[in-house]
Amino acid sequence: MNPSRFFDGLYISFWTPAAVLTAALGIKLPSIIKLWKDPLLRAVGGLLVLACGVFVFAAPSTIAWTNRVTGVPNISAPLVYSLITAFCGSCLLLITAWRNGIPDRSATTRRATRWVVSVYSGVIVALWVLFALADARVERVRDLDTYYATTAFMREEIVLYLLAHTAACLITFRLIRNWVRTDGLDVWLRGGLKLLGVGYAMNLIYDSSKLGAVLARWTGHDLDWLSTDLSPPVACLSAILIAVGFILPHAGQYLHRRARTRLSHWRLRPLYLLTRSVTGGRVPFRLRATPELRLTRRETFIRDALLHLARYLDEDLDRRAYDAAVGLGREKDRARPLAHAVTIQDAIETKRRYRAATATAPLSSSSPLTSKSPVSPISHGSHASHGSHASHGSHASHSGHTSPLSPLCPLSSPDIEDLLEGIEDVSRALRHTDDIRAVRERAAAAAESVPAS
Predict the structure, then answer these.
(1) Angle formed by the axes of helices 315-327 and 332-360, to 10°?
(2) How many Å apart are CA 318 and CA 337, to the nearest integer?
(3) Who's near 4: CB < 8 A, 6+ residues apart?
């Protein structure tokens, strides 16, 4: 009942990495099941299962339970050593798959795979044979490596599993280090590889502490604390780093895609609200819709609205607005969205006036409303400034409209395609109201300076 003894039976250094590795396996499991024929994913799954099994069966409480259930003292030793050895083989197989690529089925790859499987399978068999030959009747839950460091056959077994583990970690660390230095890796994969490299380097510290304690026993010294106190937390930290290293590329890329999707959805909001004011509709809300689906629906809504506005878009205004934006010192990549934003606003206003005019105009062709076309706000000033020409019958030729109450001439196809492809840039430009106002005023001034024909 002593609270200070509560954590003694939990063995945090063993169960914490087991929980992290289980979480990593849970994240990877759907992909492993879906793409079971992928050797890389199978290697990752096998490695995570074995690493989790190592910490579960290496926990002192599990060791005592296994010995008690089987009735064989210290039988957990060859079991845990076998799991560690199998983990080492999985590491090498994983690096082989990564290095040579999934579709590579060359003789070199097959030979390396057979070598790893045969060598580490032989080591596992040797571990069980040595345990059967050894005299290990005294159960040791925490300090078996040092207690039996000088016992015949147990000594060889301990050294064998440590050497196999050390060799695998050295090769894996070197291959990962070389891979990190290559070009063309995304930030998430590079970060995951770095964590894996640190994790395997920590495994080398684990091996060094274990071997140091064993060698000390051989020379008559007592450095058991290296094995019983230092090794477990080092192994715990190593396992966590390896688990996070496997999770980071998958989870990081997934979260990055989600963040970009949500950001694009937010960036399209100004243009979405502007087009809603014309169509009067909206994208239907679905509570269970994924962010990707919401983004696709918003993009589709905007593009459909712009296609309906295409007949009201003024090509001359778009050209003048672009020249105005460039004249104000904006880069070409920014000037084009600003020009499109001004043109869209003008088209929306033109459509509203056109609808209002057609709604109130009588059907008789003698109606005053049928004598002229709707004029955009920017181009209106130019028509007003040349009122004397209009009074002499030249207004129709100056405005460029070919029929009464007809919409303005649409943009050419390449401009429409450019507008539909760049809706996110146009929407971002709508947030800069001062820039749009400046471009609008400069474009209007350019229109007024054009002499009437």
Answers:
(1) 140
(2) 10
(3) none
379 burial via Cβ count (<10 Å: 0-12, 13-18, 19+):
buried
Distance CA 50, CA 112 (A): 21
CA atoms within 13 A on the CB side of 141: 12
Residues 443, 320 contacting (CB under 8 angstroms):
yes
CA distance 306 to 28: 42
244-288 pLDDT tens trace = 887 788 778 888 888 899 999 899 999 888 888 777 778 877 777
Place of tokens 């793409």: 35
Please count the other Cβ atoms lying within 10 Å of the Cβ belonging to residue 422: 16
pLDDT in tens, 14-27: 777 778 888 878 87
C-beta separation of 77 from 162 below 8 A: no
- Distance (Å, rounded) from C-alpha 366 to C-alpha 356? 18
pLDDT band at 185 (very low <50, low <70, confident <90, very high): confident
Burial of 182-212, coded b for 16+ CB within 10 Å and e otherwise, reads eeeeeebbbbbbbbbbbbbbbbbbbbbbbbb
Distance in angstroms (rounded) separating the CA atoms of residues 376 and 359: 18
- Please give the structure tokens belonging to residue 203: 């495994």
